[in-house]
Amino acid sequence: MNAIYLDHAATSPVHPEVINVMTKAMSEVFGNPSSIHTVGRTSRKVLDDARQVLAKSIGAKDNEIIITSGGTEADNMAIFGSAYALRDKGKHIITTQVEHHAVMHACEKLEKEGFEVTYLPVDRSGRISIDTFKNALREDTILVTIMYGNNEVGTVQPIAEIGEILKDHQAILHTDAVQAYGIERLNVDQLNVDLLSVSSHKLNGPKGIGFLYQRTGTSLIPTFFGGSQEKKRRAGTENVPGTLGFAKAVEIAQQEIELKKDKFKNFRELFIKELKDENIQFEVNGNTEHTLQHVLNISFKEIDVESFLVNLDMSKVFASSGSACTAGSIDPSHVLVAMFGKNADELRNSIRFSFGLGLTDEDIIEAAKRTAKIVKRLAN
């Protein structure tokens, strides 16, 4: 029985071309980019070239890209850095109830420090209302941090519309685009964002590397202290091999975005069709119109998520839920709670399948067949 990995939204396999680039860099480009001698300048040159690739991918300038250790650091830098920079102008922050924990927990910490945070509700598809956002916006709002696309259900938020509303407002707009980057074409000017976070390992790059886009003129206080790297915005010797691998992954992703979107949409349709052909009772969670095509979250009737995941694993179909399983108990997904309520069945029977590199139509059909078989067994 072949293994079928359907958890690309959690992390993705590293592309072979990325591995080649990094292996070569680790043996040939070892200098500290801050050193002024030839070896250091060589590292600086390849780092600058990689930064150009990253900047171009979102329509930004080279000096607007801050290399980070990943999406979590980028989110934290954006939220704490802007909140502290603008605290004299107000202490109100707007976010949503469905953000990644890197954003949620950062906002919760700021609340303990005296900031006021409004958590916007979402509808049953996981999307916020523009009218609700407008009603929450205040004169003392200094930061709006709303994810581009949700990591659990794939729902895409109206970021460009929010950015348009904020054009004449003091608030900084940050979007966590970690799940969307490499899947959707993102342009910071079209989105009207001031800060944007991404991570490499979601698009077949290495773990431990990402970046934060900071629009020129956007206030941001550093959260790391040490050297003067990243134009004094993020201390620490740059991860040159990781950045080069990241840039290569971005190059590949940018070339294949439209192809991947079509492929992932087809995967969704194949998976759903197979479940229907097997007479499985299910509902797709999320917004069917505004969605990331590679994320498919499904609620199965009369199924317990914990036993379901164990059976999927035994059948060599590797998927996940939005829940944290610890010591035999399940902590319900905060995303699904926001969408359906605290006592909803969806909290206990929803599974996320997510698509990526290396999958074929045959893999998707086979995974759906194995899933259907498990559902029939567990429902009896």
TrEMBL record:
The answer to keyword rRNA-binding applying to this record is no
Q: Which reaction does it catalyse?
A: (sulfur carrier)-H + L-cysteine = (sulfur carrier)-SH + L-alanine
Cofactor field: pyridoxal 5'-phosphate
Drop me one GO molecular function for this one.
metal ion binding
Q: What class of enzyme is it?
A: transferase
Highest taxon in the source lineage: Bacteria
Q: Say which family it is in.
A: Belongs to the class-V pyridoxal-phosphate-dependent aminotransferase family. NifS/IscS subfamily.
Q: What's in the keyword line of the UniProt record?
A: Iron, Iron-sulfur, Metal-binding, Pyridoxal phosphate, Transferase
InterPro entries, alphabetized: Aminotrans_V_dom (IPR000192), Aminotrans_V_PyrdxlP_BS (IPR020578), Cysteine_dSase (IPR016454), PyrdxlP-dep_Trfase (IPR015424), PyrdxlP-dep_Trfase_major (IPR015421), PyrdxlP-dep_Trfase_small (IPR015422)
Q: Can you say what this protein is called?
A: cysteine desulfurase
Its Enzyme Commission number? 2.8.1.7
Instruction: Say if the entry is tagged with keyword Metal-binding.
Output: yes
Q: Which residues form the Aminotransferase class V domain?
A: 4-364
- Record NCBIfam families: PRK02948.1
